[in-house]
Amino acid sequence: MPNSYPEVYFPVVVQAVLAFVIAVALTSLSYLLGKRSRDKVKDSPYECGMVPVGSARERFSVKFYLVAIVFILFDIEAVFLYPWAVVYRELKMFAFVEMLLFIALVLAGFFYIWKKGALNWSQSD
Question: How does the average pLDDT of the chain come out, rounded?
Answer without folding.
Answer: 84
